[in-house]
Amino acid sequence: WAQPRPTHASQPITTCRRWRQAVDQGRYRYVQVSGTLPAAGPRTLARASSYLGWTASDPAAELVASAGVRLHPPRAVVFALFRLRGPLDPAGCGSPTTAPGGHAPG
């Protein structure tokens, strides 16, 4: 897990804003993430669940490679490698109640 400081127990990051802050603090040049594509609507990486959507929806993240695994249709898990061209923008996540990928729930 990306973490802002070393700890004895790693815990998942649960918000877009916190994810982008942790990635920025780690000064990573590349990030490998995975997520589930939505069952309805546009199936773009920026609308994918959690880390994948939070990374793909930031303009500083450039997709380098990706691969997908089809689950029970119409769901799919995607693995992606991003090159970070600069810091991610935590303010670009929207409100704390915004769903993964920066989109309002519903």
Describe the overall structure.
This protein is an alpha+beta fold and about 110 residues long. The chain is about 15% helix and about 25% strand. A three-stranded antiparallel sheet has the order 1-3-2, covered by helices on one side. The radius of gyration is 13 Å and the shape is globular. The C terminus is likely disordered.
Features:
2 helices, globular, 106 residues, three-stranded antiparallel sheet, alpha+beta
SSE blueprint:
Blueprint: H1 16-26, E1 30-36, H2 50-56, E2 61-70, E3 76-84
Antiparallel strand pairs: 1-3, 2-3
Helix pairs in contact: 1-2
Average per-residue pLDDT, rounded, comes to 78
Unreliable stretches covering 5 or more consecutive residues: 97-106
Strand percentage: 15-25%
SS element count, helices: 2
Strand order of the largest sheet: 1-3-2
In total, the number of strands is: 3
Which structural class should the secondary elements be placed in? alpha+beta
> How helix-rich are the residues, as a percent range?
10-25%
